[in-house]
Design a protein that fits this description.
The protein contains 1 helix and 12 strands, in the order E-E-E-E-E-E-H-E-E-E-E-E-E. The chain is mainly beta and 177 residues long. It has one domain. The chain has an 8-stranded antiparallel β-sheet with strand order 3-6-9-8-7-1-2-12. The chain has a two-stranded antiparallel sheet with strand order 4-5.
Length: 177
């Protein structure tokens, strides 16, 4: 498994099609008499993460996965972002963009691309916020909160051979049961 955000697990075939981290520092420019201005560090901004995922009916229910992401966004609650076995901290979804890639004749969503903007949560976590425990001995199994079930992608029926994923999207999302 590639990672998880809260109770939503992500698997990857060749890497996410978008994953970026942005850290920014802020400085004040101070004018000095008869000299060049100087900079004074003020603060480091919150970390922002941009994550792009591809949802397809072959490995998940895109409509349900999008609904889960929308629900997480509207809860306005921080959730842990885990990549591999590394907890990156707690984040909230500030923006969720969905683009339908493919729909059936009856309008059923077959494939969609989602981009999430996450913003680091600073301060004390609400009591209702999920926590993450990682277990490196379980091949990266991640559990969110007390009594949660492991977030793992279904195992492939057979081991892939070179070229099997040449036409496949780069990342997927699954929801824990």
């Amino acid at each position: 498994m590639f990672g998880a955000f809260g109770g939503i697990g992500f698997t990857v075939l060749g890497g996410p099609d978008k994953l970026s981290f942005e850290d920014e520092s802020h400085y004040a420019k101070i004018d000095v008499i008869k000299g060049p201005p100087v900079l004074q560090w003020i603060f480091d901004d919150l970390t922002r993460i941009e994550l792009g995922i591809y949802l397809h009916q072959m490995w998940c229910d895109p409509t349900s996965a999008i609904a889960d992401l929308q629900q997480q966004r509207t809860l306005h609650q921080p959730a842990p972002m885990v990549i591999g076995v590394e907890n990156k901290g707690n984040y909230v979804i500030t923006n969720l963009r969905q683009r339908d890639v493919w729909r059936a004749d009856d309008g059923t969503l077959i494939a969609a691309r989602c981009e999430l903007s996450l913003l680091q949560w600073a301060g004390t976590l609400p009591a209702s916020a999920p926590t993450v425990q990682t277990n490196a001995n379980a091949l990266g199994t991640t559990t969110a909160g007390p009594g949660a079930t492991p977030l793992q992608a279904p195992a492939p029926a057979s081991a892939p051979v070179a070229g099997d994923f040449a036409d496949a999207p780069l990342s997927t999302a699954t929801r824990s049961a």
